[in-house]
Design brief:
By secondary structure, the chain is an all-alpha fold. 73% of the residues lie in helices and 0% in strands.
Length: 325
């Protein structure tokens, strides 16, 4: 077999191995992508048809109508417009924080698991320190300190800074999971063969380790997005959020300070809360579909349950593996 034939065979094997890492199409995956896709589409198209989010020329606390689809706030802001721009802001915070958290988790998790020894001890020590510190209080302290620092100007209360703070405080749990998987992959034959062949460490990590962690990396990235959006909503509700931009969290904070619950202005606080819940549900469904790739038992569980029910109706026994006895 010549070199070109071996190269094509290797590429075909790599593509086949990559396809096995992709989640199978299922109701959870389709439903999750439909929900998340609709929210992303709303974030893109919503601002194009909405009035300026800070336009206060409208009458205050108007109920939903043909003119204002989601009513108005106490200051006369159109809630639909605020929701459209807030969706953009929250998604941006989730993506930026998720990427930062994933990169840090790979650095502190995969590198520790692959190299072992002193590097593992040092990186794991820092990861464990981050794990034992309560997450929300740490985020609150960092956000409050940074926002009161001199020289940052408008950046001190921007959504980008909030995303950075959430990203650097939300990676430790993912790092622990990735470290365990990297240690397991480090002992596989193909990784050992690459190391014996003299491949550089960075190439082994990027070519042999990380491709096999794709489902796990995707799951951790989704978890990071959910954590960031919920964290931003909590910070904004406490008055530590991004006052320089509009997010779902700042909408909830405005509704809380404007006594929306007391005045019965449900259209002010229900939409951002519903969007947070919908996005969390959609991302969770996608995460469940990815979990079925990481853990094949989850993928086989529904079929095994159906076999058990059919066997029970037929009056025969079924083993734990789903085989009819």
């Amino acid at each position: 077999m010549d070199s070109s034939t071996r190269g094509r065979a290797t590429m075909a094997d790599a593509r086949s191995r990559f396809r096995t890492l992709l989640p199978r199409r299922s109701a959870k995956l389709v439903g999750g992508f439909a929900i998340v896709g609709a929210i992303v589409l709303f974030a893109i198209l919503g601002p194009l048809i909405a009035q300026p989010p800070r336009d206060s020329d409208n009458a205050s606390l108007q109920q939903p109508s043909a003119e204002h689809w989601l009513g108005t706030s106490k200051l006369g802001y159109d809630v639909f417009s605020q929701l459209a721009w807030g969706t953009q802001g929250s998604l941006m915070i989730g993506l930026v924080a998720g990427i930062i958290a994933l990169v840090l988790a790979v650095v502190f998790g995969v590198l520790a698991g692959y190299f072992g020894g002193f590097a593992d001890e040092a990186l794991s020590l820092f990861t464990n320190i981050m794990l034992v510190i309560p997450g929300l209080p740490l985020v609150m302290v960092i956000a409050a300190y940074v926002q009161r620092s001199e020289g940052l100007g408008d950046f001190a209360r921007s959504s980008v800074l909030v995303a950075i703070v959430l990203g650097i405080t939300g990676w430790a749990g993912s790092a622990v999971v990735l470290r365990a998987q990297a240690k397991s992959l480090r002992s596989r034959e193909y990784v050992a063969a690459a190391r014996v062949a003299g491949e550089k460490a960075w190439r082994v990590i990027f070519v042999e380790i990380l491709p096999n962690l794709v489902p796990l990396l995707a799951a951790q990235f989704i978890f990071g997005i959910i954590f960031a959006i919920l964290g931003e909503a909590g910070l904004s509700y406490l008055g530590l959020g991004a006052t320089g931009s509009i997010t779902w969290g700042t909408m909830l904070n405005d509704a809380q300070t404007g006594q929306a619950v007391g005045t019965g202005a449900w259209w002010w606080f229900v939409p951002p809360g519903a969007m947070i819940a919908a996005l969390g549900a959609g991302l969770s469904l996608i995460n469940f579909a990815i979990d079925e790739v990481v853990n094949p038992k989850l993928r086989l569980a529904p079929e095994n349950a159906r076999k058990v029910r059919r066997a029970a109706r037929a009056g025969v026994g079924v083993t734990e593996t789903g085989v009819i006895a």
